[in-house]
Specification:
With 296 residues, the protein is α/β, with parallel strands linked by helices. It contains 11 helices and 10 strands. The chain has helices at residues 12-16, 21-37, 44-47, 65-71, 106-123, 149-157, 169-178, 196-207, 220-224, 246-270, 284-295, and strands at residues 51-53, 75-77, 86-92, 127-133, 137-144, 184-189, 211-218, 231-234, 241-244, 274-279. Strands 5-4-3-6-7-10 form a 6-stranded mixed beta sheet, sandwiched between helices. The chain is globular and about 65 Å long. It starts with 11 loop residues before the first helix and ends with a helix.
């Protein structure tokens, strides 16, 4: 696995103090490249735009054995029509994304992740679009690579979450209707919603030969449920309030949470989609590394 020195990266709380979203994304990307260039995989960052990972069925005559000797992975030379990626970022804007146990929310983290991926792709000459959604589609910017388009994406991502409920199936169904060219679709959400309709809608995109990446953004408190005192909880999506004793609720909560996580991973695995859980205290470079490894 490609790694880069952790000490060269800003921790997430420090990163979030950078108010300009595009500058925040630039800091993540440049820190990532600097770390990668200083790693044993120096040079890989240049070559990945010209190669893609070997998959069964590819002609083995196009394998690059020198690159295999350096990376211990099989790559083939890309053909001209494969060199530019088309990527649509789909970002959850529902109220559940406003939760944060620290100084920033899941929404802040998700927007930074989307901005980082958009900045990274534009730097590589790829085309990017954005769909922001909650119970309906809030904003849609088509997949493009032209002057000014990255700035439009950044401005859209700087808008606060405005929706109430989460509807994961809606953006996937609309994408299936609107986007005719195959490409990569990246959904960024907490995925804390019933998954049945989502699975059916995701299946439509997978059946069309698209590459699917799911980044689940969760606050550490949602993952480990480390609350200690009796607390008044409010559901941000339906505003229902409930007093909960964490000591009594922890076992049941974690059981249901783990069941939900297992179902989500199984959906992704069954459709050949890439899934990654990101806690909001994790460096953004982890997500960028996963994306890079899928990109090649």
């Amino acid at each position: 696995m490609i790694t880069a020195p952790r000490e060269r990266f800003l921790d997430v709380p420090s990163l979030m103090t950078i108010r300009n979203l595009e500058l925040r994304a630039k800091v993540v990307v440049e820190g990532f490249w600097n770390g990668l260039h200083r790693s044993p995989y120096h040079g890989f960052s240049v070559e990945f735009t010209e190669y893609r990972q070997y998959t069964p069925g590819d002609d083995p005559r196009y394998l690059d054995w020198r690159l295999f000797a350096r990376s211990d992975r099989y790559y083939i030379k890309k053909f001209e029509d494969e060199t530019n990626l088309r990527c649509l970022l789909m970002v959850d804007q529902s109220r559940s994304m406003l939760f944060g146990s620290g100084s920033y929310s899941k929404n802040d983290y998700a927007h930074t992740l989307a901005a980082t991926l958009a900045y990274f792709l534009f730097e590589q000459g790829d085309a990017v679009g954005l769909m922001a959604f909650h119970e309906r589609i809030q904003e849609y910017l088509p997949v493009r690579n032209r002057p000014g388009h990255l700035r439009q994406i950044m401005l859209a991502l700087e808008k606060p979450a405005a929706g109430k409920e989460t509807n994961l199936a809606l953006p996937l169904k609309r994408v299936s209707e609107m986007v005719r060219k195959r490409g990569m679709f990246v959904m960024i959400s907490d995925f804390l919603t019933p998954l049945e309709e989502f699975a059916s809608a995701l299946r439509l995109l997978a059946a069309s030969g698209n590459e699917l990446l799911l980044f689940q953004v969760l606050d550490p408190a949602e993952v480990i449920f480390n609350l200690e005192k009796v607390t008044l909880f409010q559901d941000r999506e339906n505003e229902r309030e409930l007093f909960i004793d964490p000591a009594q609720a922890r076992g049941g909560y974690l059981a249901r949470f783990n069941e939900h996580q297992l179902a989500l991973r199984q959906i992704a695995q069954g459709l050949g989609a890439h899934y990654q859980l990101l806690r909001t205290d994790q460096l953004l470079q982890h997500a960028l590394l996963e994306f890079l490894q899928r990109r090649v």
